[in-house]
Amino acid sequence: MIDLFKIFLLLAGVSLSTSHGVDPNCNITRFSQVETVVKNCKNIVVSNLEVPAGKQLLLDLQDDATVVFEGHTKFGVAFWEGQLVVVKGKHVNVRGAPGSILDAQGEKYWDHRGDHGKVKPKFFAVETTGGSVFSNIYLLNCAHYCVHVGAKDVTIRGWTIDNVAGNKDGLALNTDGFGVASRSDNILIEDTVVMNQDDCVVVNQGTNMVFRNLSCYGSHGLSFAVGFSGKDKPENHSVASNITFENCLVANGLYGIHIKAGPDFNKGRIEGVTYRNIQFSGITQDGIYIQEDYGDIGNLNSEVKIDNLTIENVWGSVKGHHARPVHIVCGRNACSNWRFTGINILGGGKNYCNYKPEGFTC
């Protein structure tokens, strides 16, 4: 029997689709569908997908494409470097549906050794351009580094990185939340919760970034590690400039703010950086720790310059006699034009500064 209602819809130009408004041929429920769907569709749903061990979920999207993760996306266990997920494309929109989870099964990799143990896969790479937006993604149990951002003109908002299970007995290490590198530019990360065992955010390289309304638990803080490529690669001199962290909480971790460079790092520059309205709670080592002897304590031959650094309205607490509210170790002639105001960090021992910022008495 002819379905007159369907004929009416087709004549009216209305597509027949799933309840999500997506062509059923653009739903990914099996890994074998990924390549074809990504090639042919702009409105994609990834639903309860199981990614085989050792395989990468590569979403090399068409311009203006949309991807929605639904249900439980689980990645099989294999000891390789990853990334488990890579998203590429221009002006794409990637989001998680309510209740959705991307699960790396990190609990099956953690070994108390992090970088020094078995090889573990990195989780999620953002490699997009053109005003792309990633929203409401829930990452569970990163085995190693959680999110790599090597992108231009991207907004990341409403994420949760949940590595709480890795806190037990110090199982998980080197589970950085967001690592920003690869000459990234015009990056906004906001309204996000990170619960992990290394840097909440670490900037290696890039320009024009804002990190705001972040809540970081158990981490090593809001960080920079510039020039990290090593002196054997002089072509990789790195710059991090025009970057702001504001309205953030860092709780129950090693450091609150951590800027690190070292004598074995490559040449680099950190310039035009502002930390504003940052709260600490229960920090166990240093509240503000800026060190240019990372990896070789006491060696001040760093080739990373830190210029025009502003830290304002930072408050909260550190705990333990060995913790310092403020700890500054600059390389020789490496630091200039720093301004600190409104620093009110309680607890711990004495501050130490071999460079004195304007407006702050160490």
Q: What spatial form do the alpha-carbon principal axes imply?
A: globular
Radius of gyration: 22 Å
- For this structure, the CATH topology is Pectate Lyase C-like
Q: What is the overall pLDDT average? A: 92
Q: State the CATH superfamily name.
A: Single-stranded right-handed beta-helix, Pectin lyase-like
- Count up the helices: 2
Which CATH class applies here?
Mainly Beta
Order of helices and strands: HEHEEEEEEEEEEEEEEEEEEEEEEEEEEE
Model regions low in confidence, pLDDT < 50 over at least 5 residues: 1-20
Number of strands: 28
Into which percent range does the helicity of residues fall?
A: under 10%
User: Based on helices, strands and strand pairing, what is the structural class?
Assistant: mainly beta
Cα(first) to Cα(last) distance is: 86 Å
Note the main sheet: 17 strands, parallel
- CATH architecture label name: 3 Solenoid
Number of domains: 1
Strand content: over 45%
Walkthrough of the structure:
- This protein is mostly beta strands.
- The protein has one domain: Single-stranded right-handed beta-helix, Pectin lyase-like (Pectate Lyase C-like, 3 Solenoid), CATH 2.160.20.10.
- β1, α2 and β2 form a beta-alpha-beta unit.
- The longest helix is centred in the first third of the chain and has 8 residues.
- The radius of gyration is 22 Å and the shape is globular.
